[in-house]
Design goal:
Number of helices: 7
Distance between the termini: 23 Å
Radius of gyration: 21 Å
Strand order of the largest sheet: 1-2
Number of strands: 2
Order of helices and strands: HHHEEHHHH
Structural class: mainly alpha
Helix content: 55-70%
Shape: elongated
Strand content: 5-15%
Length: 174
């Protein structure tokens, strides 16, 4: 895809951010502090720049897979549970959603949607300083033959929307 190189760069950045903290992850530091550091160092490396891109579901899953993998490492074996089945001990892996919840992260698709919607809120709250952006996506600007919104201000579905506009609609529907 168009963003494959950037997704690969983000995956490398996740590994680099993880390694930059060295033995911190397996030290006796409380889990609450590890989770904060994880979000601010590792997760930030993953999400940096991605808010400006339109990622596919598969690309989001690739990033989530790596984030969950390093989050499991951070748990130092805590992502594995034990269950006794009639005298036999069985081990089972914690579900990915539970690992995400424990580490304090949501799927990258959700996190990016939140970041983009916050940016859109800032544009909408100060339209005078965002005229070009708002006009380019929602109104008539020299190159548009007609506005992208109808007379009620609702996005028209009969137009070939800009990819960012399509992403905004998907973000709002999450």
């Amino acid at each position: 895809g168009k963003n494959a190189a950037e997704v690969e760069a983000r995956i490398k950045a996740i590994h680099q951010a993880w390694r930059s903290m060295g033995r911190f992850w397996t030290s006796g530091v409380p889990s609450s502090i590890k989770r904060r550091i994880f979000r601010s160092v590792v997760f930030a490396a993953a999400s940096s720049v991605l808010t400006a891109l339109v990622l596919t579901e598969m690309q989001c899953q690739q990033i989530d897979k790596v984030l969950i993998m390093v989050a499991r490492k951070m748990m130092c074996g805590g992502a594995t549970g034990r269950r006794d089945d009639g005298g036999e001990t069985r081990f089972h892996a914690m579900k990915n959603e539970a690992v995400q919840k424990w580490s304090g992260i949501a799927p990258i698709k959700v996190e990016l949607a939140i970041q983009r919607l916050r940016w859109w809120q800032s544009c909408a709250s100060d339209p005078a300083n965002n005229v070009m952006t708002l006009t380019a996506l929602f109104g008539m600007y020299g190159i548009d033959s007609e506005p992208t919104v109808n007379e009620y201000g609702v996005l028209r579905t009969d137009m070939n929307w800009h990819p960012w506009l399509k992403q905004l609609v998907r973000d709002m529907l999450l």
